[in-house]
Design goal:
Pfam family, one: Glyoxalase
Shape: globular
CATH architecture of the largest domain: Roll
Oligomer: single chain
Number of strands: 9
Largest sheet: 5 strands, mixed
Keywords: Metal-binding
Order of helices and strands: EHEEHEEEHEEEHH
Number of domains: 2
Structural class: alpha+beta
Protein name: VOC domain-containing protein
Radius of gyration: 18 Å
GO molecular function: metal ion binding; methylmalonyl-CoA epimerase activity
Length: 177
């Protein structure tokens, strides 16, 4: 039986302003930027469950991941920000970083903020660092840093990802992919 999905395509994130958020993800996290586009009309509105005046969009790339930013021309009334991670919907997106403190500093320089931080030892040596940050619109994202291959493997095991090749960048570094 063929797989229902052949490959992962992208993640779409509704934002208030495409340009502001694109600059944030490029400057703070190192995404590459695609060309902006716009879409509108009744057919698009029906498909996207939006107003017919449409939206502006842009795709950003980080490695194999594509992040689509969409700024709808008619935006709903703002709700509580940041949205509670326990509410149904996407809780966060996550990035493995090489320079934890440097990345947090870049996030803050680009208009985001550190929300919570945890230093945790899975097996050692050293402590892994995990932070939840907010982009300028209050969307939550996670930064993960491991000091050693042992910590990376232990964290992957804790999350049930040992057989799924997480994180892919580590799997490539140690020759597993």
């Amino acid at each position: 039986m063929p797989k229902a999905a052949r490959a992962f395509s992208h993640i779409a994130l509704a934002v208030t302003e495409v340009e502001k958020l694109a600059r944030f993800y490029v400057d703070a996290l190192g995404f590459e930027r695609g060309a902006p586009y716009a879409a509108a009309g009744r057919r698009v509105a029906t498909l996207m469950d939006a107003e017919p005046d449409g939206f502006d969009g842009v795709f950003l790339r980080l490695g194999d991941v594509l992040l689509e930013l969409l700024a709808y021309k008619t935006q709903p009334e703002p709700g509580e920000r940041p949205r509670r991670a326990s509410e149904p919907g996407f809780a966060h997106i996550s990035f493995v970083v090489e320079d934890f403190d440097g990345t947090i500093a870049a996030v803050e320089r680009a208009g985001g903020q550190l929300h919570r931080r945890l230093d945790h030892r899975y097996v050692g040596p050293g402590e892994s660092a995990i932070a939840f940050c907010l982009d300028p619109d209050g969307n939550r994202f996670e930064l993960v840093w491991h000091p050693s291959p042992e910590e990376t493997e232990a964290h992957a095991g804790f999350l049930g990802l040992a057989d799924l090749g997480w994180p892919a960048c580590y799997q490539v570094e140690v020759g597993l992919r």
